[in-house]
Amino acid sequence: MLTTGGFPKPICGWVAPMLNVNSGRYGFSFTQALRESLGSLRLLGKRSLLALLGIAVGCASVIALLNIGHNAVNEAISTFKSMGSNILVAHFAFIPGVDVKPAPSTLDTQALTRTIPTITHAAPITLYSTRVRFHGQGVDTNITGTSSDLAAVLDLQIEQGRFLSDYDRQTTYAVLGADIAKQLKVANQPIRVGSQLQIGEYLFEVIGILAAQGPNPLLPGSIDHSIILPIEAMRRLRSAPEIGSVVARARDTTTLSSDAVSLRDYLVSLSKGRRVEVEIPKQLLDGLTRQARTFSYLLAGLGGISLLVGGVGVMNVMLMNVSERRREIGVRMALGARPVDIGMLFMLEAAILSIAGAMFGSLLGVAAGYLFVKFSGWVFTLSLFSLPLGIASSLVIGLFFGINPALSAARLQPVEALRDD
């Protein structure tokens, strides 16, 4: 064994004197212990790096998944807010075993708003799927029959032309959603106001093209992918069209619950034996938020599993480190090192791996979450508790799995440790 000034020289460096000269305290100073721990980890080389990466990947998983869940909730909330918090959507449904009267094919919206003064606008919706042709090109799409009030209820924005009016009820006019207008585009023949579409056996004139509206979970179909006709014109396509839904805009959000009851009772009176279900955005939003929060916790749990795997890696590296440094531990103890000094050295090594892994993993996790959110087309906002939770859990896991190797080193007997294997 090499010697330095009469003292044995162990594997990872020189054995420092047990007396802290600066403080007069017996044992290692923190600076000295930190220096020796860093030197030991440096000698471990790739094994230290792999243990650090295990903690980093686990920490990154927790932070990234929490941020993905957080931004998914924000996106859902913004979607609901954009479609209006004072919207009501009523759906007609069958009651099994009961003779039902067919749902109405049209709706007197003025009578509805007179009966329920707190509702400012209402529009019926009936859907029909068929093939539409434009200059020989056919596209399968949804036909939405409705009234002129739909624009006011959903705050539809027009890109070209105009929307349906009360004077268009008996006409063959059509308004196109933004996406279906792009699909029907033919080379050198872009669809525009005045173009003719063949729907069934009839030609319909395009009088307007809507701007992109985005998804609306409350509606039975996407406005962007629909061709909108006067609801009276649906009789040209179907022999007995029936209203499937009614969308309404309330005057005030504070009366939504009572408005929903009034709307349901009014529509039930129009169709005997039908069950009417009225949806309120706030109720759906609350349910969606709870589901998204649960999903976020599930994602964090999956990240926690990978963090546990990283902790096992730290313990494995530290146990191998203790096994390889038995003689060094024995020499230190023979020269007066206390079990607490030996344990502190190995706990400090585990802490260094955990802190470095947590710092690197936090940066990696934020970057991964940011990229996922951006590729999804969402607006990124950092979850406030993701970083503290990710870093704290990484430190706790790393230190927890470092306890066993540290105790194993501290409990070694000098005679046992110095004995050759």
UniProtKB/TrEMBL annotation:
GO terms for molecular function: transmembrane transporter activity. It is a multi-pass membrane protein. Keywords: Cell membrane, Membrane, Transmembrane, Transmembrane helix. Coiled coil: none annotated. The keyword Oxidoreductase does not apply. It is found in: Cell membrane. Residues 303-414 form the ABC3 transporter permease C-terminal domain. Its main location: membrane. Residues 48-257 form the MacB-like periplasmic core domain. The chain crosses the membrane at residues 49-69, 297-322, 343-372, 378-403. InterPro entries: ABC3_permease_C, MacB_PCD, Macrolide_Exporter_MacB. GO terms for cellular component: plasma membrane. It comes from the Bacteria. Belongs to the ABC-4 integral membrane protein family. This is ABC-type antimicrobial peptide transport system, permease component.
